[in-house]
Every structure is written in C-alpha cells, then in structure tokens.
Design a protein that fits this description.
The chain is α+β, with helices and mostly antiparallel strands. The protein has 3 domains: about 45 residues; about 110 residues, Uridine Diphospho-n-acetylenolpyruvylglucosamine Reductase, domain 3 (2-Layer Sandwich), CATH 3.30.465; about 110 residues, CO dehydrogenase flavoprotein, C-terminal domain (Enolase-like, domain 1, 2-Layer Sandwich), CATH 3.30.390.50. The chain contains 12 helices and 14 strands. A 5-stranded antiparallel β-sheet has the order 4-5-10-6-7. It has a 4-stranded antiparallel β-sheet with strand order 11-12-13-14. Strands 1-3-2 form a 3-stranded parallel β-sheet, with helices on one face. Strand 6 and strand 7 form a beta hairpin. Helix 10 packs antiparallel against helix 11 and helix 11 packs antiparallel against helix 12. Bound molecules: flavin-adenine dinucleotide. Flavin-adenine dinucleotide binds next to strand 2, helix 2, helix 7 and strand 10.
Length: about 290
Amino acid sequence: MITHPFTYRAPSTIEEAVAALGRSRDAKVIAGGHSLLPLMKLGLAQPDALVDLRRIASLRDIRAEADGTIVVGALATHRSIAEDRTIVSKLAALAEAAAAVGDPLVRARGTIGGSLAHADPAADEPAPVLAFDALIRAIGSKGKRDIRAGEYFKAAFETALAPDEIVAEIRFPAQTGRTGSAYVKFAHPASRFAVVGVAATVTLKGDGTVERAAIGVTGAADAPFRAAQAEKAITGTKGDAKAIAAAAAKAAEGITTLSDLVASSDYRRHLVTVYARRALERATQRAQG
Ligand SMILES: Cc1cc2nc3c(=O)[nH]c(=O)nc-3n(C[C@H](O)[C@H](O)[C@H](O)COP(=O)(O)OP(=O)(O)OC[C@H]3O[C@@H](n4cnc5c(N)ncnc54)[C@H](O)[C@@H]3O)c2cc1C
C-alpha cells in the first residue's frame, strides 16, 4: 500500500512533463512503474508528485533514421524492443537483453527509459547500451542534450541525469560492415536480474581480423562498465577461440566486483570472464555470418 499523498499528472507532451517536474520539490516521472511503485509501496520513495509519461505516444517509437541510427523511445517496453524486427536484425544484443528481463509481465510494462533512469546495477539493458556506444537523449528545463553511455552510468542508482531531465530516447549508431553482437547473462534464480550480464559487439575487417570490439558488463559492479582491457586484447586478432579466451580473461581487470548472498566477489569476477567469452564467441560468429 502507498500511504503518503502525492499529486498525479499525465501531460501529453514532453515539454509539459518537464514543466510539471519543475513545479514540485520532489516530483518523479513514472513510466512502467515496475521499479518506482515497489519502492513507493515500501516507503523507500516518497515523491510529492508523479508525472506519468504514458500519454506521450511519440516516446514509444522505435525507428531507423536515414543514416542508419536506430532510435528507441524511452517508453518502448522491454517486450516491444525484444520483438522489434529492426532491433533483432541490427542490434541483436539489445533484443536479447530486453528478452532476458524479468518475466512476461515485467517485460510488457517496464520501459528502457525507466531501466536506464533507475540504473539498478543488475539491470540488463545498460550492457548493450554501453556496448553499442549509444547516446541517451535527455530533455530538461535547459533544453536537449545527448549523453554518451560511457559517461551516463555513475554508480548504483546514480546517473548523469539532472533531477529535471527526462530520458526521451536512446540513439544507437549505425552498425557498419561485418558486425555481430550478443548478450548473455547469469540470471538471479528468483528475480531474473543479472548477477552478471555481458553484451559484446564485434566488427571484422575483410580479412577476418577483429577491427573493433566493445564489451558492456552489468551486474558485476556498482555500475555497469566497458571491459576496456578485454576489448583491447581482442582487437587485431583473428577472433579465434584462443584469442577470445585470452581477451575474456581480462574482462574484470581493474574492477571492484560486488559481493552478496547470491555471488561472492571472486565468483562474480569468474562469471564476468566466462560470460565475456560466451558473448564474444557469439558476436564473432554472427559477424562472420
Ligand atoms: C519482479 C521484477 C523483476 C525484474 N527483473 C528485471 C530483470 O531481470 N532485469 C532488468 O533489467 N530489470 C528487471 N526489473 C526491472 C524492470 O525492468 C523495470 O521495468 C525497469 O527497471 C524500470 O522501468 P519502468 O518503466 O518500470 O520505470 P518506473 O518504475 O516507472 O521508473 C523507475 C525510475 O526511473 C524514473 N524514470 C522512468 N522513466 C523515466 C524517463 N523516461 N526519464 C527519466 N526518469 C525516468 C522514475 O522516476 C523512477 O525513478 C524487474 C522488475 C520487477 C518488478
């Protein structure tokens, strides 16, 4: 039960939503409600106003722009992302991460914008958002700005968003040449959140060597991260099993991994290397066609 009082508004444009956010001291946006409402029921979040985005239909859109950029609206649900044909064919790691979220109910209501704004360290979609080097487009009282994924996630439940900013869309740059991607995860046995989740993208040159690789890791640390040492190690190799295993072994280098009842810090570190190897293998196979 939610016991504290709050006002409720459901504006029909993002500009009105930004203005509504500014009118209250502790207003919060609500999207799918699958993270915010449980917190409100527990009394852990007590906003004095809720600004519901559900009437802003344009925020649900998933579209490809002329230059190949794929734009996913903040209100796109995990299910709509997992089932979108363009995303399945061009951004497989994102489709796989969305399909791996929770259960069918959560996927039907929860949104990518909500997931990125909430920034649970065990959320799935941050991993492909990092691996694809996406831009998070935020709109606030000072206007619009694009935040690079690498600069967006700050700590557990902490992002680069200002309190009056709303995530409007996530912009995935065009995937050129022979590129493949994949997301794999070790799921929490009850909630299905990622104990460790890894997204990889691999681009191959004409001769089959790895031109570029990007690896986004979630669940392992207090914020999702790019496995920079592993990316460096795989680049320029033939992307064979030995090179992938050697690169994946470096995926947790320099990272302080989390420890909890489900997985110790050492076990999470091990999982990062195992799942980085699997993600790289799958992404490379897809790039090879
Ligand atoms: C049982 C259960 C299992 C789950 N399992 C998983 C899982 O396996 N993997 C996973 O990744 N997630 C999981 N989730 C979380 C789920 O994906 C949530 O839907 C998601 O994290 C939040 O999205 P939402 O649209 O529901 O956001 P809401 O709950 O509406 O909002 C969450 C937070 O984000 C803010 N917010 C929402 N939208 C915006 C926006 N556009 N701009 C700025 N701020 C915004 C809100 O103010 C709030 O602070 C699970 C949730 C439940 C209840």
